[in-house]
Specification:
Length: 68
């Protein structure tokens, strides 16, 4: 399945400064799906990182309490 996108702006910021490229382009929908999967994986990783940070902080606090 192909997806076709048209950009209705001549602003170089929107078209990423590529004057040679037309203002419309198409790509495969599988690329989009891959992007979604990657985003989900990234979210999972960052969530894991947050959890570990929280756990370490908790462990530090309890260790500090034990020392006192």
């Amino acid at each position: 399945m192909k997806i076709h996108i048209s950009i209705l702006s001549s602003d170089p910021k929107v078209t990423h400064g590529a004057p040679s490229s037309p203002s419309s382009f198409s790509f495969d929908a599988r690329v989009l799906e891959l992007g979604k999967i990657r985003t989900k994986e990234r979210q999972k990783r960052s969530e894991k990182r947050r959890e570990t940070k929280k756990r370490r902080r908790r462990e530090k606090k309890s260790a500090r309490l034990l020392l006192v």
